Amino acid sequence: MIIVSDIVTIEDRGKYQGIFGAVIALANGTGPFVGGALVDSVSWHWVFWIVPMLAVPAALLIFFFLPLQYEKGNYKEKVKKIDYGGIVLNLAAVLLILIPLSGGGVQYPWNSPLIIAMLSVGGCTAIAFVLYEWKVAQVPIMPVRLVNYPYCWALYVQNFFTGMCFFGNFFYLPIYFQSVLGLSALVSGALLLPLIMATSFTGIVSGQIMSRRGRYWWICVSGFVLWTLGTGLKCAFNRSTKIWHIVLVLLVEGMGIGNILQSTLVAILANGNNSDRAVATGLRNFIRTIGGAFGLIISGAILANTLDTRLSHLPFMTPEILRNLTSSTYSLDKLGFDGKQMDLVLDTYIAGIRYIYILYTASAATNLFLCAWIGNTNLRGKPPTENDVEVNEESAPSIQQVQETSKEAEANKV
């Protein structure tokens, strides 16, 4: 994404970022399909073996065919500029917040001293990280100035909630298909194809529209409307939902996701400084990934707490079985439940998954609300920034220099 942002003009950035987003969506959705086929036909070990088999050729292609331009300078000086303090504070803050969120209410009660202490220290560490990046770091991993650009604060917040919805969606849909509907891993992966194809197709189309019209606001609004609608409709999924119903809902949601994945990045780059393209793209990806981590952790806590609240008091539910339910959601048929017990467990799973999709619907709706503050900057003919002006003034010859050059040329002729 950083390379595309650097080599493509702002007018064409939407088109190429749309294609890039479509490829990412295709890969994210094809993965479960391929993984399901491997699990059903060979072994789950191949899910991990296939990663290096694909990563090594990709790395070789990048090494041999991607032209690189290295920045000159002393290696030790470059190493000293790395933001070690920011890396440590960021990692500590994320871990201190995510760990208690994942274990709260399941392994430890929410009012336990450990949970309260970790959340408090994690919050203080997060504040310290922001202050360090703002006041101390020479080359910060998260430059605070990026948030001060017009409309960018809202776009970064949108990317956080986008990560919550996007990554959790691909995680909990297979759980619903396999654990609740009883479908195989292969069929579960195949049911993701409507979502994948709609996301990929709409991503390419929305990128073309942004490039031709030079605006992004309507793309973002329509995307979040469809995404909110699709996620909200999934709250109605139950144990008897028809396949055609699932396909239609995933098509609607996929069209919304396709509009959003790259349009918010194009908007961030359109409103920022050209010299910050790389770091702005990296920050956007980081925020979206952190949002995905928070979304998965919170969703897991919701499902685990729902199972614990509704099932722990039942006579057949031992602490060991409850731990197995919360830790391995794909092994319900191996826990020895009879018909009525399985019905209770599946109904509880449906309730937990419904709460999760209510969270995702609220996140998508929040992003739709934030569209009031993302602007609609023209992607064509963006005025030069201060850095661009300085470069142009230094590189462009003055009128006096041109006149002197002309006089010297005439004198040489004589």
Q: How many alpha or pi helices?
A: 18
Alpha-carbon distance between the two ends: 56 Å
Q: SSE string, helix = H, strand = E? A: HHHHHHHHHHHHHHHHHH
Poorly predicted regions: 383-407, 409-414
CATH topology of the largest domain: Growth Hormone, Chain: A
CATH architectural category of the largest domain: Up-down Bundle
Mean pLDDT: 81
- What is the molecular shape? globular
The tally of domains stands at 2
Report the structural category: mainly alpha
CATH homologous superfamily (4th level) name of the largest domain = MFS general substrate transporter like domains
The amount of beta strand, in percent, is under 5%
Largest sheet: none
The Cα radius of gyration reads: 26 Å
Provide the helix percentage.
over 70%
CATH class of the largest domain: Mainly Alpha
The total count of strands amounts to: 0
Molecular structure report:
α5 (84-103) runs parallel beside α14. The radius of gyration is 26 Å and the shape is globular. With 414 residues, it is an all-alpha fold. Mean pLDDT is 81; it is low at 383-407 and 409-414. The protein has helices at 2-7, 10-41, 46-65, 75-80, 84-103, 113-135, 145-148, 152-180, 185-190, 193-213, 217-234, 243-260, 263-271, 277-311, 319-327, 339-370, 386-395, 399-413. It is 76% helix and 0% strand. It has two domains: 2-42 and 154-381, Up-down Bundle (Growth Hormone, Chain: A); 84-142. The protein is built from 18 helices and no strands.
